[in-house]
Specification:
The protein is of the alpha+beta class. The chain is built from three helices and five strands, in the order H-E-H-E-E-H-E-E. It has a three-stranded mixed β-sheet with strand order 2-4-5. The protein has a two-stranded antiparallel ribbon with strand order 1-3. Strand 4 and strand 5 form a beta hairpin. 17% of the residues are buried.
């Protein structure tokens, strides 16, 4: 439904600057009980990062990705990594989910 609304130009976005590190730390804190219940260690390796976007939509995306990584990881750790990187020689800040020492189906 949200994709259809976006395609029709009807989706309301609340664009503002926010702290991505704090947002991801909150998502990891809330997802940790699910991870522990499944015997998965959930870690966050974060650097400070400000972003201008719709905080609510970004939170939805990160939550969905973290929960999917937990569900698809049979054992080991899931690490949410927010770090400086370089793509084609240009500095980029980014986020990635990484199953570590696991038998993940991802």
């Amino acid at each position: 439904i949200q994709l259809s609304a976006a395609q029709l130009g009807r989706m309301q976005l609340d664009i503002a600057s926010f702290d991505v590190k704090r947002l991801i730390a909150d998502v990891v804190r809330l997802a940790d009980p699910l991870a522990r219940h499944r015997g998965i260690a959930l870690h966050a390796d974060l650097v400070p990062l400000e972003m201008t976007s719709d905080r609510h939509r970004i939170r939805q995306i990160v939550t969905n990705l973290v929960e999917a990584a937990i569900r698809r990881t049979e054992s080991g750790d899931v690490v949410v990594n927010l770090a400086d990187a370089h793509v084609g020689g240009f500095p980029v800040k980014g986020c990635r989910l990484q199953p570590v020492r696991s038998n993940s189906a991802c």
